[in-house]
Design brief:
This protein has 323 residues and is of the alpha+beta class. Helices cover 20% and strands 20% of the residues. The protein has 9 helices and 12 strands. The strands form 2 sheets. Strands 3, 4, 7, 8, 9, 11 and 12 form a 7-stranded mixed sheet that branches. β7 and β8 form a beta hairpin. The structure holds ligand MTE.
Length: 323
């Protein structure tokens, strides 16, 4: 494929704008656009609130009870950084997509479960949440661009969805798909990207206890820019595996080709397990920058989650496991 992706991942993390600088610039632009009175308020330290969708009937369910099993080795990242420094290519290729993402309607929101299952079905997000064991978990998130955060996700283990979906024994993979609506997501009009965004896991990965389907964060429903109303969290893998705004789980015996793999298979593959010893072809993965503090910390194999997941890859070798 001759297509070269643009911006974002073209540049190494060291050359990217720190989100603190970027946020200040964004606030300044907003403040100037709003006029002098508002401007002085914003520049005086006011942070624009990103309110949860008022029409979101799940809002009253939060906060979920925290599962104490999953602990962090670092402080939780301040929510404002996680909410305003995003990758969501449907809404643009830079980090500043939070406003654009507000155009995404998240109710009604139906999720299709099909392919190699006992009986395909479609279910609304609120009905699905009623059937799932809801909890909060503290997880780290490591982007392939070498930045990271620590976040309280709300949601449910993917294993519970697997039990509901009842895949056939011949199914080897689950393929997940993001919504497709170029009218609300301008990025989807860019024909050279392989829309819709797709990701995949093996059945064993999907059933791993760490694999989590996220409906919210920081004790509230998920902001749209972070992947409302349903996204994936697989914290031992690079962040691009954490597909946002999911509308379909399709069970299959063929390994899915994910969005980034379709775009640039020499750089992004199916497994994408974090490994500081395997550099990205264009930059090192040895360390990461914590957004919010800008602290550089060493990256850990499987992002520190090896005790839960290393056995999934026993006997498998090669760098392709780590990109
Ligand atoms: N899902 C969709 N549908 N579209 C995207 O562009 N970006 C991925 C992942 N999921 C992406 C996506 C990448 S590269 C990362 S690092 C995380 O979402 C970013 O999640 P955040 O914006 O909540 O930090």
């Amino acid at each position: 494929m001759l297509i070269r992706k643009r911006r974002g991942w073209e540049i190494p993390e060291s050359a990217a704008t720190s989100e603190a600088v970027f946020r200040d610039r964004r606030r300044l632009i907003q403040a100037l656009a709003a006029g002098p009175v508002l401007a002085s308020g914003l520049l005086g330290g006011g942070m624009r609130a990103m309110a949860a969708d008022e029409a979101d009937p799940s809002a009253r369910l939060y906060p979920f009870k925290r599962n104490p099993k999953y602990t962090l080795d670092r402080p939780i990242t301040d929510a404002k950084y996680v909410e305003y420094y995003n990758n969501f290519y449907e809404f643009g290729t830079d980090k500043d997509i939070a406003d654009a993402a507000q155009a995404l309607p998240i109710r009604p929101w139906t999720i299709k479960i099909d392919g190699m299952v006992e009986k395909p079905f479609t279910i609304g997000i609120d009905d699905l949440m009623k059937k799932m064991p809801l909890e909060e978990r503290l997880y780290r998130h490591r982007c392939v661009e070498a930045w990271s955060f620590a976040v309280p996700w709300s949601g449910f283990p993917m294993a519970a969805l697997m039990a509901l979906a009842k895949p056939l024994s011949a199914a080897k993979y689950v393929k997940m798909e993001t919504f497709m609506d170029p009218k609300v997501a301008p990025g989807q009009n860019q024909f050279f990207y392989p829309w819709p965004y797709v990701e995949g896991l093996t059945i064993a990965e999907a059933n791993n206890e760490l694999t989590f389907l996220v409906t919210g964060m920081y004790g509230k429903p998920e902001p749209k820019q972070d992947g409302a109303p349903l996204r994936l969290a697989v914290p031992w893998k690079y962040g691009f595996k954490s597909i946002k705004s999911i509308v379909r789980f399709e069970f299959t015996d063929k390994r899915p080709v994910s969005y980034w793999e379709a775009l640039q298979s020499d750089e992004y593959g199916f497994w994408a397990n974090v490994n500081p010893a395997v550099p990205h072809p264009r930059w090192s993965q040895a360390s990461e920058r914590e957004i919010g503090t800008d602290k550089r910390v060493p990256t850990l194999i499987y992002n520190g989650y090896g005790e839960y997941v290393a056995q999934l890859y026993a006997g498998m070798k090669g760098d392709q496991l780590f990109r």
